[in-house]
Specification:
Length: 153
């Protein structure tokens, strides 16, 4: 067999380390959850004009219609999280970077929902809810940071 022909097909072989194995079970679980929620976000935009009430909520932001400012913001978050989950699950080369951006944005949005939403909603300065998403976002970022070198090489 021609050695030149063999070497040209080497670039199509899968790497020996499957990147998905670097992800812990809880990130894999959330990948599926957020891929499904991303599809639900698209579905809410498609059926929004025909349905009078659709409850959307993430990170403390809530809306009953996908075509409000908050509704579009929530759908955008769901789509980005769905894209991040897709990138991680299907082992895209930039998935770790996208995941880190997702984690940092999630923390920023959680902080905004904890401190800005109560002030804007005039529910009183004394009521600042603690978002439990921090329990997942911070370890999520730390785990992505830990596996980044192995993922990229």
């Amino acid at each position: 067999m021609n050695p030149e022909l063999e070497s040209s097909f080497d670039e199509f072989e899968k790497p020996t380390i499957i990147r998905r194995k670097l992800l812990p079970w809880w990130i894999k679980t959330f990948c599926w959850i957020f891929m499904i929620l991303g599809v639900c976000g698209i579905a809410s935009l498609l059926v929004g004009p025909f349905v009078s009430n659709s409850n959307l909520s993430i990170y403390g932001f809530e809306s009953t219609t996908p075509f409000s400012t908050v509704g579009i913001f929530i759908v955008a978050i769901l789509l980005f999280k769905g894209f991040t989950a897709y990138s991680l699950w299907f082992e895209k080369s930039n998935a770790i970077t996208i995941g880190k951006i997702d984690a940092i944005a999630g923390v920023a949005i959680c902080i905004a929902s904890m401190f800005l939403v109560p002030v804007v909603a005039k529910s009183g300065i004394s009521r600042f809810p603690i978002r439990l998403e921090f329990l997942f976002l911070i370890p999520y970022y730390l785990k992505l940071n830990k596996i980044e070198d192995e993922w990229n090489n």
